[in-house]
UniProtKB/TrEMBL annotation:
Domain of life: Bacteria
UniProt-listed PANTHER family: CYTOCHROME B-C1 COMPLEX SUBUNIT RIESKE, MITOCHONDRIAL (PTHR10134)
Compositionally biased tracts (Polar residues): 1-15
Pfam families xref list: QcrA_N (PF19297), Rieske (PF00355)
Subcellular location: Cell membrane
Single GO term (MF): oxidoreductase activity, acting on paired donors, with incorporation or reduction of molecular oxygen
Naturally occurring in which organism (per UniProt): Janibacter limosus
InterPro entries according to UniProt: QcrA_N (IPR045603), Rieske_2Fe-2S (IPR017941), Rieske_2Fe-2S_sf (IPR036922), Rieske_Fe-S_prot (IPR014349)
Family: Belongs to the Rieske iron-sulfur protein family.
Protein name, UniProt field: Cytochrome bc1 complex Rieske iron-sulfur subunit
Purpose of the protein: Iron-sulfur subunit of the cytochrome bc1 complex, an essential component of the respiratory electron transport chain required for ATP synthesis. The bc1 complex catalyzes the oxidation of menaquinol and the reduction of cytochrome c in the respiratory chain. The bc1 complex operates through a Q-cycle mechanism that couples electron transfer to generation of the proton gradient that drives ATP synthesis.
UniProt keyword terms in alphabetical order: 2Fe-2S, Cell membrane, Disulfide bond, Electron transport, Iron, Iron-sulfur, Membrane, Metal-binding, Oxidoreductase, Respiratory chain, Transmembrane, Transmembrane helix, Transport
Lineage of origin: Bacteria, Bacillati, Actinomycetota, Actinomycetes, Micrococcales
Length: 374
């Protein structure tokens, strides 16, 4: 045995089934683990006051009832506050200054209502409800063969006695009625998912008006400063400047103005033409612009916030919502953040009077990468 064993103590080699004392020096194990651990069983059940004394039980009953009563009063207070207290009435409350009396009473009423039920239920369970541990043995979940056969027989008997099996017309119409019965529920569910995909994000004010043939006939609209609503010339756009642009005529709309504005808004920037990257995308961005001036949709392709920052040195556009960053020198490719697509570019040119115009509408849907893009 260990030499560290205190004198007088004769530790026994643990058998694995008894607890081992650790306050008597080292313990030398037998080198194996027991085959089975003994079931420690449940601790002995201790009777509570309310189990032993009827008076204590009555007292507990009264305490629970008081808590439920508190809940009832809380609910009444809530209803009174809701229907009878003027929402404009203010009251001074320590530490919070003035607040609406109605809000205060609604909050207190709801708090007491829920708290009373919660505390009452817990107190009831701890003092009066049975607290003995009960074990329910597991049994096979599968029904016996006899029960299963009994179920089948019952169903067949039911089908036979209702004559469903002998009358196919009844069977078909009953099945159809029951199947169709679920349709209104499914339709409501489907209807509440929102509008079906359309081309809302593919068509903007830059597409022009819809003709009688159902097609859009783009006009080469001028780029107008927003909100001044004045046309802009290339000479106005110096290197490093950014203009907020709307299509000519949009601000005169009377219907759906905000929606159309948000879809059509464009950022106009001028770069040194040598700043564009010598990649396919960079070359395309330069070609769709005019002397280094480029126009891109202002609607972020992540979830549609307005792109709000332009960093002149790096030529990056940044969306403040989730920090998506677009590289203007490479066709507004996403260089950082959650956006899934580059910002769509508006191809621009100059009209006979020297004003910037859109050569064509956006060639892809603007805005978020939702299913409507498809
Ligand atoms: S909306 Fe622009 S990054 Fe999320």
């Amino acid at each position: 045995m260990s030499e560290h064993t205190p004198t007088g103590a004769q530790p026994q080699e643990p058998t694995g089934s008894e607890p081992v004392r650790l306050d008597q020096g080292h313990v030398q194990g037998s080198g194996g683990i027991p085959e089975r651990f003994a079931n420690p069983g449940l601790p002995p059940h201790v009777l509570r006051n309310a189990d032993l004394d009827e008076k204590a039980a009555k007292r507990a009953e009264r305490q629970v009832a008081i808590l439920f009563l508190l809940s009832i009063l809380g609910t009444v207070l809530f209803l009174v506050a809701y229907f009878m207290v003027d929402v404009q009435t203010q009251v001074w409350v320590p530490f919070t200054n003035e607040m609406s009396l109605s809000n205060l009473l609604l909050g207190l009423g709801l708090a007491f209502s829920l708290l009373g039920i919660g505390l009452g239920a817990v107190h009831w369970a701890k003092t009066l409800m049975p607290d003995t541990e009960i074990v329910e043995m597991r049994h096979p979940l599968r029904s016996s063969d006899a029960d299963r056969q009994g179920f089948v027989d019952t169903m067949l008997d039911g089908g036979e006695s209702s004559q469903l099996t002998r009358r196919p017309l009844l069977k078909a119409t009953f099945g159809a009625a029951m199947g169709l019965f679920a349709l209104p529920l499914l339709i409501q569910l489907g209807g509440s998912l929102g509008p079906l995909p359309r081309n809302d994000l593919s068509v903007t004010f830059w597409n022009g008006e819809k003709g009688k043939d159902g097609k859009y006939h783009p006009k080469k609209l001028r780029l107008h400063r927003d909100p001044e609503d004045t046309p802009i010339k290339p000479s106005d756009v110096t290197i490093g400047s950014v203009y907020h642009i709307q299509p000519e005529g949009l601000l005169e709309l009377s219907d759906d103005l905000l929606n159309e504005m948000s879809k059509a808004s464009v950022l106009l920037m001028r770069l040194d033409p040598t700043d564009f990257q010598e990649t396919d995308k960079g070359r395309k961005a330069r070609e769709w612009g005019y002397q280094g001036i480029v126009a891109y949709s202002k609607v972020c392709t992540h979830v549609g916030c307005p792109v709000g920052l332009y960093e002149q040195t790096t030529h990056h556009l940044l969306c403040p919502c989730h920090q998506s960053t677009f590289d203007v020198t490479n066709d507004c490719e996403v260089v950082f953040g959650p956006a899934g697509h580059p910002l769509p570019q508006l191809k621009i040119a100059v009209d006979s009077e020297g004003y910037l115009i859109a050569e064509q509408p956006f060639q892809e849907p603007v805005g978020p990468s939702f299913w409507e893009r498809g």
